[in-house]
Write a structure and sequence with these properties.
Butyryl-CoA Dehydrogenase, subunit A, domain 3, 11% strand, alpha+beta, 19 helices, two-stranded antiparallel ribbon
Amino acid sequence: MPEYKAPIRDIKFVMQELLDCDSHYQKLGYEDASLDMVDAIISEAAKFTEQVVAPINQIGDEQGCTWTNGEVTTPDGFKEAYHQYVEGGWPTLAQNVDFGGQGLPHSLNTAITELFSSANHSFAMYPGLSHGALATIEAHGSEQLKNQFIPKLVEGSWTGTMCLTESHCGTDLGMLRTKAELNEDGSYSLTGSKIFISAGEHDLSDNIVHIVIARIPGSPEGSKGISLFIVPKFNVTDDGALSDRNAVSCGSIEHKMGINANATCVINFDGAKGYLIGEVNRGLNCMFTFMNVARLGVATEGVAAAEASFQGALAYAKDRLQMRSLSGVKNPKGPADAIIVHPDVRRMLLTQKSIAEGGRALIAYLAQLVDIGHASTCEEEKAAAETKLALLTPIAKAFLTELGLECTSHGVQVFGGHGFIKEWGMEQLMRDTKISCLYEGTTGIQALDLLARKILGSKGKILKAFGSEVTKFCLENAEDDAMQEFIQPIMSFGGDWQKMTEKVGEKAMQNPDEIGAASVDYLMYSGYLTLAYFWAKMAKVAQDKLAEGSDEEAFYQAKIKTARFYFQRILPRAKGHAACVENGGESMMALDADDFSF
């Protein structure tokens, strides 16, 4: 199993040098988030993830969760690690001080989230879903519900879930059958079954707070008739104390491809007591608060997977001796050279490195936009941040998880046959990561959200804010000779992005299927270009640091060289996606359904 080491230096580079988190935090009033405090928190998180969370990753995969008569037991070490997690105050980090949180920035918490996910994907999911539950209750719940449920969720002694999917409906939530009937006391009785509920039942916390969508009898059909409810595993008194067991049960847990140490549950509601969040029939609107938080969390999982796989592959590539370098012997005292000398191994390692580090920069940028939405007093600034988040969230979720999965495949490949063997841990990373491409909306769903709802729905206006930022950066560096290898491609690809958007819009007016045909390729093109922008910015920072005479020359040179690799070997992939968009959907839709025979 790879020995995980938190990438502290690169996290600090992104937060402090690329994005100037110190100025960002002080401007928003996060006075406690000084550089010393940020450094201390990241260092402590590194120790905890390396020494407590990572060591139980493999045993968690081997043992999995067990289900007996509706109760779920987590693997050895998970309960103890979670209790340490709570005792260390990690759940409270970025939560509201009014409910017992530390009130630190969301972006700092996001950096910590990456460490947990890289160290142990399954473990990270247990507290991870609580963030979405908290955000949803805080944004849409009554004061009574906030006081009943938020303090214990903040503390971590209770955890949260998101209950959307039913056996007959996944993405099409308007088909749900779970019903909610009004009780005399103003609460509701929920009846129905939900599937694929991550962390839906476990032995880590005292209570589990389910955020559930259901239909109140008499409500409109489809998505317009969905309402949202809090349904706890144990009932809760008005003052927030635990009461009797609610009519909520775990019918079974799924036997899965990966994340075996996280219980993916069938949850049955048999007249369970629940509380309405927000307005009747406006549940899907409220649910998007949870889903948007979750989508950024899942995007972070893609970066975490790329980092973990890169670390394992790099260590192995430096140690494994196979063949001689084509350009001459590099290890004359050994029987062969280390495989890191071979160009194809370098290709895979640099792909992993460029995706992990580029993705980390994108996620940190998005997390700072969330900070602005939470803490800025300028409505115009908040609106601009929300617009950029709306554009970039589906890109980050889909693009970074697809490339995260690719990076785990490269990790297996670097190990050769040994990568296919469980004891090395590389195949577990690949199995665990595939789910990130699926939940919180598959890649196809994110692509439709981006192209149909965001881009074409705004008639391209949503591109303006981020596009202007990219253009400004390019113009500022237009006379910098050292930056031209990065600036010129961004300008060229950016211009093509705008033209592609216009052409897809024109085609869609004649045939709406053209949107679905183009959407994934459009999103992937957008992702490659977006990451190119962040790599160019990182290269600029590195060049400036070297010009100042930094004593970390190797670190900054590696940044520039990795940026060059990204522009020369990864960004050109976007041209293939552009060609697919240009070719349209006719060949995709040419076969009748019955012609798909075997």
